[in-house]
UniProtKB/TrEMBL annotation:
GO molecular function: kinase activity
Family: Belongs to the IRAK1BP1 family.
Cellular component aspect of the GO annotation: cytoplasm; nucleus
UniProt xrefs under InterPro entries: IRAK1BP1 (IPR030312), SIMPL/DUF541 (IPR007497)
GO biological process terms on file: immune response; positive regulation of canonical NF-kappaB signal transduction
Coiled-coil region list: none
Record-linked Pfam families: SIMPL
Keywords carried by this UniProt record: Cytoplasm, Kinase, Nucleus, Receptor, Transferase
The protein's name in its UniProt record: Interleukin-1 receptor-associated kinase 1-binding protein 1
Subcellular localization: Cytoplasm; Nucleus
Amino acid sequence: VHSQVCIIFSDFGKMQNVCNLLTEKLGTSVTISPPHFYHTPEAVDTLRRQVCIAAVGNTRRKAQEVCRLFGQALGKPLLIREEETKEWGGHIDSHLPNSPDSLTLQERIQNATAYASCRVFAVFEIKGKENRRNKLL
């Protein structure tokens, strides 16, 4: 009697633990196929949001450093605009030129890893340090 079980994992560590446990308990009676990696639309959307938030945070920190150089204080943002978002990687196994079974696990992970970058434009209010001190008093 042969049966096939397909399991979807969202945690790579848990997948490895389950595979190791099955191999340990069932020995040669179990065959574990190489994993197929993919990204859900929700995961890609989360990646896009995280990258955009990180880009805005980086822009704010850079603006703060420039303000410090000139003895000024960074105020509130007046405009934040997402200019460009790029995504690459995250290939699905079936689109790879080599047979999925011929790739090592590390190669499969590397090919399935998704990357994104985001360029933002931001305009911040600039306050003189003297004005800021007077407002705090």
